[in-house]
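FAQ: What does the model actually see?

It sees only this:
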Amino acid sequence: MIQATSNERYRLKKLMKGNDGTTYPDALNEKTDDSIDAGSKVIKAKYEDGSLVSIYNNGRPMNDNDRLKYIQLDSEKSEESSDEEETSPEQIGKYGIGATKARARFSGRDGMEITTSVDSEGNGHQIKIDMSSLLDKEKTPNNCWTGDSEFKPTWKKVEGRNVYEEGVTTEYMNPSSHNFVPSSVIIEHMKMYQYYVEKGVILQHTFDDVEYTVPQLISPENVKKLVKSIKIHKDHRDRYYYQYDKPGGGTGFVGPKGRGYGHIDSIKDGVGEPSETFLIFEFPKISEVITKDMKESKEMHYAFMNAIKMMSQNIHVEESGRVIINCGQNNIYIDNEDDESAVKSSTKIVKEAFFNGINIKQDERNLSTIPLSIYGDGGKSRSGDMDCQNLYEFASKTWETYSKNEVNLAEEIKSRVTLDMIPGLDKVLKDMCTSFNKYLKNEIKKYHDSLLTEEEKKKKKEEIKRKKEEKKKKKVKVNVEDIGTQVVSPKIEEPEVKDTEPEPEPEPEPEKELTIEHARQVVAADRTRDFNSALDVETPEPEPEPEPEPEPAPRPPAPPRRVSFYQGDIPNEDGNRIVEAYLKSMKDSGSLYSGIDLEIVNKIVKKNM
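And it is asked to produce this:
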């Protein structure tokens, strides 16, 4: 008789390699989550040569149910418990499958994990999981985890009072190489656990006897906070509908549209009750950044960007540009030298490290940070003042939801949470960030204006008007190639001026009439990019008369060139002639031409106005 078996050794090997996508930082976060779920106020991790060797938390010691779940290869975190203090719906770890993955990753093929739980009376329970023996075919069966052997994971009672602190301690003997570095760990935990740190949880990381304490990222007293509601509805087909408040005023709606999601006029009747979430913006206080002596708007905008470090009391930038993160007894240093750029390189370092995207927060934990651009993934073409187009990036942006909502983002590996899990949400966030960018621009201007006297405001207004007029008067040379149109025009050579008496000028040849048909050929040639053939179309030659008089030798053909149009007092006659014929042709043709044709003509006309 053939019975089902389980190759647990092979499963352990896959977990050790991280085949499911679990990285060492993911595993460290799982251990931290478990500690927080146990009600810990102090979590201490120690590293040697970049590898985690122990992690301790002073939370509740493990009960029988916790110890059972801890050694199961597959388990799920429970929301039910006989002791209401043991678990909560908001838990983020609590000895689920994440503990198994973390154990396999940190121990590796040759390591051993030793976990000890000690209660307030000094009673301890300990388990030793020897990975090297579990993977040894000579020592254990294929079902090495649950099969009978002396290496089967088993909890045992120990005297823990004199050896271990109250709480839970996990040690790794002969672990795999984890390659942790202090700066990466501190920066990651500043982002992910900032709300727990704000509430007093102490996260300490000791690298080769050098201790770092994770500092609070955002200092509430240093920032202005803007909270906007996003209500998420769900219909009977599990499609999402969104109603949201825009920064600066107004309400937006997004819902199913065509094959995807788009902006709609309102929420239709019959959708379910909304789950309310929030988009939270935190940014430097404008009143502490903008000063009266700032004259140009771009100066104010760049000052706002470079003030991003002011959002945290624990991030400092030296005069040279070196970035310092205050971590208690020791600091993290990021080497850098600021240059003369409007946006300093130290500013870019702080933004990329801490504020590069939108945080996805469920309850008190940041699950992930999602890059987001209001100009699209393809880098949408932008024009206008570049100094104010990315103001929104120099702020903290957090989308906050709750585990009790219908929109629950619980995942075994929390760093995998993406916006794709909730269709349409990306359009909502982009629209809100676009409005936020305009809001910041207006608030900066409004505050600066409030610092000026009425006379200064009048002068400022006149100065702006003067600069606009000067800009209009500027002669801007624009090549036709820039607007996608090529034309051929004969090259006009200036006659050489001599001291001798000039020869009499020959009578000018009659100018060929530019017919509508000729203009249409120009249009057709424009579409095929073959203007040479269009402009070289010749009109039929008249029949020769008897005994014709000898004609003057024809002028050599001029090489084709691109015609440039000018804005100002000196129009280009060739350009105007072609434009007029083009316009007349389009008018006579009715609806024959549209789209790019109209766009080309409008641009040419604009340049010649």
